[in-house]
Amino acid sequence: MSSLFTQFKRLVGIDIRSDKYTYAKDPDFGYTATSRIPEKWVKTTCGYCSVGCGMLLGVKDNKAVAVRGNPDHPVNRGKLCPKGLSEHHILESPGRAKQPLLRKNGVLTPVSWDEALDTMVERLRDIQSRYGNESLGVVGTGQLLTEEFYTLGKLVQLGFRTRNHDGNTTLCMASAVSGYKLSFGSDGPPGSYADMEQADLILLIGANIADNHPILCHRVDRSPGTKPRKLIVVDPRVTKTAMMADLHLAIKPRGDIALINGIAHILIREGLIDRDYIALHTNGFEEFAAYVATFTPAHVASITGLTEAQITETALLYGRAKAAFIGWTMGVNHSTQGAVTVTAINNLALITGNIGRTGAAPFSITGQCNAMGTRESGFTSSLPGYRKFDNPQDREDLAHIWNIPVDRIPTARGLAYPDIIEAAVQGRVKALWFIATNPAVSFPNYKLVEQALQSVEFLVVQDGFHPTPTSDFAHLVLPAAIWGEKEGTYTNSERRVSKANPAVRPPGEARPDFDIFLDLAEKLGVRQELYPNWHTPHDAYQEWQRVSAGRMCDYSKFSWQQIDEANGIQWGGESLYRDGIFPTPDGRAKLHLVPCDPFIEQPDAEYDFILNTGRTVEHWHTRTKTAEVELLNDMVPNAWLEINPYDATRLELKPHDRVTVHSRRGAVADLELRITGIVAPGQVFMPFHFAETNSNIVTLGSFDPISREPNFKQCAVRIERTPMRDRRRASPQRSVRHRP
Ligand SMILES: Nc1nc2c(c(=O)[nH]1)N[C@H]1C(S)=C(S)[C@@H](COP(=O)(O)OP(=O)(O)OC[C@H]3O[C@@H](n4cnc5c(=O)[nH]c(N)nc54)[C@H](O)[C@@H]3O)O[C@H]1N2
Ligand SMILES: Nc1nc2c(c(=O)[nH]1)N[C@H]1C(S)=C(S)[C@@H](COP(=O)(O)OP(=O)(O)OC[C@H]3O[C@@H](n4cnc5c(=O)[nH]c(N)nc54)[C@H](O)[C@@H]3O)O[C@H]1N2
Ligand code: SF4
Ligand SMILES: [Mo]
Questions:
Q1: Does one domain contain both 636 and 515?
Q2: Is any atom of ligand 2 closer than 6 Å to the C-beta of 507?
């Protein structure tokens, strides 16, 4: 207990000394450890998730010492989630990569940047001259700045001249992109967060926002004083988000298409559709109506495990809402049927005219801080500015802006991420370059990716942290600056372009990805051609403005400065398609007939459970960042497996028992058992964050034929008690970095 004297000193603002810290009065926080009172606050945007919260990063002595929510930012209005609030801790963490490392005699050895990049160019040139340009595969990320991703696309496709360029976004957003293109003729989430507040009904499908987009939870607040509306959550688990819902539909895994078709059936039967909208703005309604007629409530109930009453109530709530909003995330996208499930969702919005109006949208909630910016500016599954490889005019446009012959621009995309990995295993891809992604933990069916990482002749890993389970395999590690150390823009789920600003210098010799790309271009001899007079990411932004001008994702209308001052600006405004005109040849959206097939690996006598994998609020993906934040890591230090009490009793398992998950691909031992009604009988869940107990050793290497997105959410597994000999055994991966 503090003495009266101490209390007095606190009151008058004199520094006081405790055992550990010196405290002083901070104008914003009251009493704070003096070491945490910044000299200045730098306005920036959170570098974790796609909510895109505005924040202020406090700096003292070139160290990031504090973070607070930006009260003027329209997305988060001053609030932050636990990851955002502790984000400054990642910058100085011991796990940061600080110098380029080149494998010499089997050992990663520090080298100069010059030697690192000279070697990289030399090795890649040699490999490409022996096996062809497309023997190089490059995988980027939704966590680079737009300026960086744009620069990278040109470097890979026009500099290194390989089309085999993709992003980790294929593990994430690809199904939403494909589904939007199939329904509307273009990518681009039609709605905004503001719509969630204005909707009468919010339907969340396979989206656990309470854990994964926590600050969006404020948008579905239904406490007294807010607009009366309903929240329905469709998820096989009783997630924290499901607990917030008015109605939780604990659907059988992959029952979603049946449910959505069944809702359409009831809407048509009850006349709860917008005939004018359908007639003016869609194609294919007659066939669609005939098709969904077979999805009767009884039939849908048998597939989904829901009651007919639940299905009907959901349909009536959706159909009677003046404005209805559907949000979805990975419970939809992570499936071999992901893209078509997205079109089924779009169907619902189209037949009820719930699109292009305030409160009404089919809205894919994105994942990473810049998933959107990278899919707009990317040179991966499409050409920059949502242009198409197979459209001659689009290629002409770009060739003109870039001042290059049009035949330099490929007429079709190269291999998608899973196909790059497959090609590496088969020996067609001989060199791999990963930028800001950690496939040894995040790619499905670990054994295959391990084979790819081991078999290529040259593997470059460019990451802010080292070692990581992927950088352990590398021939060359390039240390990158991360969020907080570099400048550019991120675009969030609602198309809001926000500025990320540098607050501190990168550690050691780490450099911004942008600078690394320009240096590589220099060494490749293409710098002046591809990046004339470029020096900073702002040069990339200005070219991107010209490239996107007049396109749907038009950045030409706002400068960096305007974005910064406005706390983010949405391209396309609050909603797209207000006029009901879609970017298709006849301006109409297309209704799709979507069959409901059983998911690919059904449980059987040997593998009798369905494994679901996902996230928790405390951790970010492969934990390169959040394992470094003591506060977060101590809350959830290890992976667990959720099992229903019914199954635990049947298998004679007790809470906290150590269990092993076996699948046809491998086994993960030593998981802590949580016995809980959160999962239904016959289903188990584990987080994918932990390299030590890597869920992707057991997951399935099956991909959506349209989007190439993996089926991360269902595979067949068996659960057994972990034998003593397998306890705390080293993971099959070669190393795991632990916080010291
Ligand atoms: N804390 C935290 N936040 C994050 C991230 C993180 O790693 N940590 N990652 C970010 C990224 S990149 C992404 S993509 C998002 C992901 O955000 P979410 O998609 O919300 O995350 P997941 O936990 O992967 O999966 C969501 C839900 O899908 C459900 N699901 C599984 N199978 C089915 C099914 O058949 N039908 C339906 N309807 N649902 C199903 C799961 O039970 C789970 O609750 O989160 C972002 N935010
Ligand atoms: N089983 C299962 N697997 C999944 C999922 C699932 O739900 N279940 N979800 C999938 C999804 S949706 C996603 S998005 C992926 C994510 O998978 P990953 O992309 O592998 O995940 P991260 O851990 O975010 O990896 C980003 C890497 O970039 C580094 N990094 C951070 N910032 C920078 C930077 O500015 N520059 C550079 N050069 N490096 C940086 C980090 O240290 C980290 O190593 O995982 C997928 N894998
Ligand atoms: S909700 Fe997402 S953007 Fe906002 S603070 Fe949390 S991690 Fe950052
Ligand atoms: Mo993601």
A1: no
A2: no
Ligand 1 nearest atom to the CA of residue 714, by list position: 32
Angle between helices 256-269 and 308-320 (to 10 degrees): 60
Pocket of ligand 1 (CB under 6 A): 49, 172, 205-208, 211-213, 234-237, 239, 251, 253-254, 256, 329-331, 367-368, 612, 614-615, 617, 619-621, 713
Which CATH number belongs to the domain containing residue 29 in this structure?
A: 2.20.25.90
**Which ranges of 379-463 does DSSP label H, i.e. alpha helix?**
392-402, 417-426, 439-442, 446-455
What is the 569 CA–ligand 3 centroid distance (Å)? 18
Of residues 362, 592, 452, 372, the one with CA closest to residue 164? 452
Number of other residues whose CB lies within 10 A of the CB of residue 351: 25
Q: Give the Å distance between the CA of 539 and the centre of ligand 1.
A: 36
Residues 450-483: pLDDT tens digits?
999 999 999 999 999 999 999 999 999 999 999 9
C-alpha of residue 690 to centroid of ligand 3, in Å? 20
Q: Which residues contact 269 (CB under 8 A, 6 or more apart)?
A: none
Task: Kindly report, residue by residue over 94-113, the tens digit of the pLDDT.
Answer: 999 999 999 999 999 999 99
User: Cβ neighbours of residue 706 under 8 Å, at least 6 residues apart?
Assistant: 175, 178, 182, 339, 340
d(C-alpha 418, C-alpha 430), whole Å: 15
Tell me the ligand closest to 446's alpha carbon. 2
Cα 124 to Cα 160, 161, 457, 518, 527: the distances in Å are 9, 11, 9, 16, 17
Whether residues 543 and 464 share a domain: the answer is yes
pTM exceeding the 0.90 threshold for the entire prediction: yes
Written as six digits, the tokens of 702 are 């099956």
> What's 305's domain CATH number?
3.40.228.10
Q: Which atom of ligand 2 is nearest to the CA of 699?
A: 1
| Ligand 2 contact, 367 CB (< 6 A) | yes
| CATH code at position 466 | 3.40.50.740
Q: Which residues of the chain have pLDDT under 50?
A: 1-2, 4-5, 7-19, 730-740
Please, which residues have CB less than 5 A from ligand 4, an ion?
172, 367
Q: Is residue 576 part of a domain?
A: no
Asked if 354 and 323 touch (Cβ cutoff 8 Å), the reply is yes
- Both 161 and 288 in one domain: the answer is no
Q: Which residues does ligand 3 sit against, CB inside 6 Å?
A: 46, 48-49, 51-53, 76, 80-81, 83-84, 213-215
Which residue stretches of 228-368 are H helix?
240-244, 256-269, 275-281, 285-292, 297-304, 308-320, 330-333, 338-351
Write down the pLDDT at residue 28: 65
Give the β-pairing of 496-500 and 569-570.
antiparallel
Domain end among 57, 92, 127: 92
Structure confidence at residue 26 (pLDDT)? 67
Assigned domain for 24 exists: yes
pLDDT of residue 222: 94
Ligand nearest the Cα atom of residue 168: 2
**Ligand 2 atom closest to residue 470's alpha carbon, by position in its atom list:** 44
In the three-class reduction of DSSP (H, G, I as helix; E, B as strand; rest coil), residue 445 is classed as coil
* Contact predicate 147/398, CB 8 Å: no
Pocket test for ligand 2, best of 482, 621, 737 (most atoms within 8 A of CB): 621
- Token pair in block for residue 611: 């494994």
Nearest residue to 693 (alpha-carbon basis) of 668, 658, 661: 668
Residue 636, in any domain of the structure: yes
How far, in Å, from the CA of 20 to the mean position of ligand 1? 40
Which residue range is the domain that position 639 belongs to?
A: 609-726
The reported pLDDT for the residue numbered 36 is 83
C-alpha Rg value of the chain to the nearest Å: 26
Same domain for 180 and 315, yes or no, is yes
Using a 6 Å cutoff on CB, does residue 143 contact ligand 2? yes
Residue 612 Cα to ligand 3 midpoint, Å, equals: 24
**What whole-number distance in Å separates Cα of residue 443 and Cα of residue 445?**
7
So what's the pLDDT on residue 32?
73
